[in-house]
Amino acid sequence: xxxxxxxxxxxxxxxxxxxxxxxxxxxxxxxxxxxxxxxxxxxxxxxxxxxxxxxxxxxxxxxxxxxxxxxxxxxxxxxxxxxxxxxxxxxxxxxxxxxxxxxxxxxxxxxxxxxxxxxxxxxxxxxxxxxxxxxxxxxxxxxxxxxxxxxxxxxxxxxxxxxxxxxxxxxxxxxxxxxxxxxxxxxxxxxxxxxxxxxxxxxxxxxxxxx
Length: 211
Ligand SMILES: [Zn+2]
Fold this sequence. Notes:
The chain has helices at about 1-20, 75-80, 95-105, 110-115, 135-145, 165-185, 195-205, and strands at about 30-35, 35-40, 55-60, 90, 105-110, 120-125, 150-155, 155-160. The protein is an alpha+beta fold. An eight-stranded mixed sheet has the order 3-2-1-4-8-7-6-5, sandwiched between helices. Strand 1 (about 30-35) and strand 2 (about 35-40) form a beta hairpin. Zinc ion binds near residues 72, 91 and 93.
């Protein structure tokens, strides 16, 4: 089973790199496995990652079994510990997500997939140093407080979670698009979905959402 999950992770991370979600060495992705998680190694070329390169980490101790995990491991650990239903965490530094996080505390959502995958709004966690326990705690609390499928980290990037790796990846795409929609219509009068319609969409997407 672990081998299968490593291959799934490799496939999705390469896909994310090809599609521009993971550029350079920025961002990191993990999946929950029994007793812990598998995460991308630090400073890696995503297109060259092999299934065996992902680092297995114990959830309770936070210790890597071998290799060097992403420096943002504390963020992933905090989310898995706070949200037992989270099965995957996708973190990237996509440009619209970063830009939206600089000018909003809560990004409005305008589309069906946005409501379905992210929720009513896309919350923004405060700036705290990358890789710090403080940032990990702030982001986990943002997910707990809002029930959102994704949040932005000010002056840094985006984090998407999901009940599967594919759901977290889809949520990461919806997050970058929601940020772009917000920035392109900022100062205009964008049409919004009425709340009844938005609630119906959120219900219909229940299988893709955390809660
Ligand atoms: Zn980052």
